Amino acid sequence: MSSISKALFFIAVLYFSSLSASAENENPGLVMNYYKDSCPQAEEIIKEQVQLLYKRHKNTAFSWLRNIFHDCFVESCDASLLLDSTRRMLSEKETDRSFGMRNFRYIETIKEALERECPGVVSCSDILVLSARDGIVALGGPYIPLKTGRRDGRKSRADILEQHLPDHNESMSVVLERFANIGIDTPGVVALLGSHSVGRTHCVKLVHRLYPEVDPSLNPDHVQHMLHKCPDPIPDPKAVQYVRNDRGTPMKLDNYYYRNILDNKGLLIVDHQLATDKRTKPFVKKMAKSQDYFFKEFAKAITILSENNPLTGTKGEIRKQCNLANKMH
């Protein structure tokens, strides 16, 4: 190769290297502390708002945890869950599967605080993920370092929700398959369902285990409490009738859930299956014995969930309001 050819080759290599480097800079994907330059206070503002809201409204912490599951599981972690319905599009929030979800307006409270500090910088999808992280801590769970840099989707995924989101009445095979589709293994499934350690289950979700006959697999001591809380085979939709998922520590994310389901006190079919299926029972037993093991697997699973197919770089947008795509303004 002549010296001129070598020089041209070298220039070509430099040119393509710079192209690939600029492409990487344009779309760096998710990284730790993505807003360190564009909005250095972003994560601290979210944390402060989550703590403030938790002091005023304890149930916000359950909402943050539920949000990350319902949003990130359905194809992409892009805050599509937060969009309102339009004339052309049904919101995910208004589907039957989102029954009982609330506190979406407080995501807007966090967004407004961020907009005052750094207008148009922090995405609603990152707010959703980081509020879940800080909500988990408020409930006594582990602090989970999560990456940021997501951008917001422009459309609801209500039409494909059922294809992705596992239901509490489905077989354990279907549940495991749905989680495996986004990279979460069996111990991760068992750990994520440990979220049922906190919050409550509405009677409408569990009356089929009580009426017309009581499910014989339920612990008889627990049945009396369930019947007291859910006295009607067809609950009044306007009445807020529910059973606490864990009567002992209802506001704490801990491993009591696993002890309860091994004692046949699981409220939902999926809880019962988790404690009896040969694929999941060994991990239930291990988590019932060790909260550290539960937290380790829980943190791993939340991390995978939060990184499911995000929009980054130039994809999507940074919404001005979390309930509306920008074109609606």
UniProtKB/TrEMBL annotation:
Disulfide bonds join C39-C118, C72-C77, C124-C322, C203-C230. The record marks R66 as: Transition state stabilizer. Its EC number is 1.11.1.7. It catalyses: 2 a phenolic donor + H2O2 = 2 a phenolic radical donor + 2 H2O. The active site is at H70 (proton acceptor). CDD domains: secretory_peroxidase. Keywords: Biological rhythms, Calcium, Disulfide bond, Glycoprotein, Heme, Hydrogen peroxide, Iron, Metal-binding, Oxidoreductase, Peroxidase, Secreted, Signal. Its cofactor is Ca(2+); heme b. Heme b binds at H196. It is found in: Secreted. Ca(2+) 1 binds at D71, V74, D78, S80, E92. Transmembrane segments: none annotated. It is an enzyme of class 1 (oxidoreductase). Binds 2 calcium ions per subunit. GO terms for biological process: hydrogen peroxide catabolic process; response to oxidative stress; rhythmic process. Pfam families: peroxidase. One of its GO terms (cellular component) is extracellular region. Ca(2+) 2 binds at D246, T249, D254. Residues 29-326 form the Plant heme peroxidase family profile domain. GO terms for molecular function: heme binding; lactoperoxidase activity; metal ion binding. Residues 1-23 form the signal peptide. The keyword DNA-binding does not apply. PANTHER family: PEROXIDASE (PTHR31517:SF80), PTHR31517. Belongs to the peroxidase family. Classical plant (class III) peroxidase subfamily. This is Peroxidase.
